[in-house]
Write a structure and sequence with these properties.
By secondary structure, this protein is an alpha+beta fold. It has helices at residues 18-26, 58-74, 97-106, 121-132, 150-160, and strands spanning 45-51, 80-83, 87-93, 113-116, 139-142. A five-stranded mixed beta sheet has the order 2-3-1-4-5. The radius of gyration is 20 Å and the shape is globular. The model is unreliable at 11-25 (pLDDT under 50).
């Protein structure tokens, strides 16, 4: 006969901060999301951004981004996510953006911004067409917004000194 495993009781959650426990339990923090596929083999990438701008509660934005992440993972798209100052960012291959926009549009969980680094002109036209289908609901940003402007950095240093 096989030995019986003792039944484990669930560990009680501290009532001090239930909202954080709820968010962590349901995985709304991008740090808890497991990357799907390997972005190491992907050449050109696109970042979909769901903004945390205050017009929508952070929980709603996180839930929309998590639903989008799950949907793209179900479709087999190589993705990774991160939480930044801009909001919740999901990175995917440039070649899968059109599929992603159609799938997310069907579920009404489109991103606020599509951020892309410098790409070829033909790919940029294709990307603009796939975004234009959503009639201005999605912004397209070209270039890395994370790179800081040297003049702005100098001004910030002068103000603080």
């Amino acid at each position: 006969t096989m030995p019986r495993r003792p039944w484990r009781r669930p560990v009680p959650v501290a009532a001090a901060d239930e909202s954080k426990q709820y968010l962590a339990a349901w995985g709304l923090d991008p740090g808890q999301w497991r990357p799907v596929g390997s972005l190491g083999t992907v050449g050109e990438r696109v970042t979909l951004v769901w903004r945390l701008d205050g017009s929508n509660p952070a929980d709603d934005v996180a839930l929309r981004a998590r639903r989008a992440y799950d949907r793209l993972g179900e479709l087999g798209v190589t993705i990774a996510a991160d939480g930044t100052d801009r909001g919740i960012e999901v990175m995917l291959p440039l070649t899968r953006v059109e599929l992603a926009m159609r799938a997310l549009g069907e579920w009404s969980i489109l991103p606020d911004v599509v951020l892309v680094n410098d790409i070829r002109a033909d790919e940029l036209r294709r990307l603009r067409r796939s975004i234009a289908a959503w009639r201005g609901r999605i912004e397209l940003e070209i270039g890395t917004a994370t790179e800081s402007d040297p003049v702005a950095d100098l001004r910030a240093r002068v103000r603080t000194s």
